[in-house]
Amino acid sequence: MVASEVASSRGASAFADRVAGAAGQPRPQALLEIEDLHVQFVTSHGTVRAVEGLSYSVRPGEMVAIVGESGSGKSVSALAVMQLLPAATGRITGGSVRFDGRELLALSEEEMRRVRGREIAMIFQEPMTSLNPVLKIGLQIMEPLKIHLGMDDQTARARAVELLTLVGITDPESRLKQYPHQLSGGMRQRVMIAIGLSCNPKLLIADEPTTALDVTIQAQILELMKDLSRRLDVAVVIITHNLGIVARYADRVNVMYAARLAESGTAERVFGRPLHPYSRGLLSAVPRLDRGRSAKLATIDGAPPNLLAPPEGCRFHPRCRFATDRCHTDPPFEAAEPGHLVACHRVSEIEALDGRPPGAVHAAVATARPAVDGVAERLLDVKAASKFFPIRMGFLRRPWQIRAVNEVTLDIKRGETLGLVGESGCGKSTLGRLVLRLDDPTAGEIRFEGVDLARLRVDELLAVRKRMQVIFQDPYSSLNPRMTVGQIIGEPMRVHRILPPAEISGRVAELLQTVGLFPYMALRYPHELSGGQRQRVGIARALSVNPRMIVCDEAVSALDVSIQGQVINLLEDLQQQLGLTYLFIAHDLAVVRHISTRVAVMYLGRIVEEAPADQLFASPKHPYTRALLAAAPIPDPAIERTRPRSIIKGELPSPLNPPAGCVFHPRCPLATEECKKGVPATRELAPNHHVACIHA
After folding, report:
1. pLDDT tens track for 531-574
2. Calpha distance 12→446 (Å, rounded)
3. pTM (2 d.p.)
4. CB-based contacts of 342: which residues, under 8 Å, 6+ apart?
5. Do residues 344 and 314 make contact, with C-beta atoms less than 8 angstroms apart?
6. Long-range contacts of range 394-399, CB-CB < 8 Å, 24 or more positions apart?
7. Which residue has the higher pLDDT, 186 or 138?
């Protein structure tokens, strides 16, 4: 096996050469070679050491992944390669970036401009902010062709059509005339890939290219990138925090922590035998789609360090269970085995110290899924609920109807967790808003504790909202930045008169301790907390009125892997201690399987399948559910290399004009003419397993 080319100033590239030689193979020619890269940002609070001693290389036709938590330096290292750091604050203070034999750091801005787009292309995380909203798609694809390749309009247009076809966009001629807002998220990302590939680059850098996409569209995009990498011999650097993606598509993996490389090697070695405590912690904190919930997630205590004043020595030692005094000095980045480099003083003894296989959870925290009595009280009962939004198309025209939620029926029993999954735009969040009565239903009933919410007056609804709370996806935008944490948590208690004013501060301190925060944090403002801490504040606020049910709308999707595990465990602990009921809305199927008692699958405003969690994941009946599960990656390269792929084709139809009959039939591999004739009735195929499909 060819050894990894990764090296650092601590390990030196000569060491990697020796490892490659020991493996009996010559070191292959790299297209991109980064050696001992250092990047800093000068701020009003001090100097942020964003990247330190980073070294890795990429060969033609190879896909190399860079993984790690937010703030670890992944994106900054890519911006340094592209020379796109902010001029006012960003500084490359040392190192070398060689591309195809040239030193990029020695090039002038004009010389670098000719390299960008022509030889090195970059795909950014959010295509809507990268594409010009006032220019048509065709002009944006043709621009680099004219600038770098000197094509005329006719030739550039023909090439643009060819590129859109290459990335799987149908009817490319008409798409060239559209603006970015007229395309779906998946199509916009495909356009970004088309622009990146337009000039036949040798290197493609993809910075979180699928984070904003649904699992089905994500699978389409990544399959496309992998296929193009192989066919066109394009080197790809993919930056992501999704370990399942890395396991499925990456050839080699670089794990970054707090601006430094912690571990590097082939995907099979890093996932199969992680040797750095941080890598082992990351893999243990990830819920697995192929495993039922039998225990809590293992988590990494604490949070990543502040890079304004990082700890001395190993950056991970303040959070490491195996840290010793020796860890206060910098560990060497060296080979633990051929092709597998690790920066840890205790690498030779880590497996014996840990005493568990990688990805396993602590046996000491194993807990069975809480059982819910089959005849338990229904806390929430939704019957044929619909929500249509009128859209006016002109002064004299009849308004169109967006059928966001269409005749949804479900119930949630006291003490259980109902997971609600589906692609963006399927109506999950709208249904959550109907349950909270933030939107009024167009039709149907939504009963909470036997009371129809749609019929309540404002004063009556206020009393219900004490018993039903919500945790939003983005805690930063849902917390008032001008209020302290104590004021944020105490506000609902004052509004609903839960406690006398003199007792509120004491209750706030109790709630902060309940969610794993210190009482003194009541004096801080939201911007002074980490993302995980802000989400805990959101949970404490929801608990402040002693609710019976909480709607979790993508409550953990914005969090890093290790912090996500902490919040999921907290939600489970609170459910057991306080008897809470959750409606858990999410797109991450592995998280939903881990936390849910039952799961409902939603597609274009309708529930297509509902069953107990383990039963649904073990034996999905609806073709859409099967497609979702097939598209979701598992963080294990050995499984992913042999797992059959059945990528769903096409994109979610518009709710303005949904298909006749079964709404899934345009994308369904089992569709027949009968599927177009009428909406399929929901049938119970097994105890508590309901499916809306004539072929199930």
Report:
1. 778 888 999 999 999 999 999 988 887 677 877 888 888 899 99
2. 64
3. 0.82
4. 262, 263, 264, 275, 276, 333, 334, 336
5. yes
6. none
7. 138
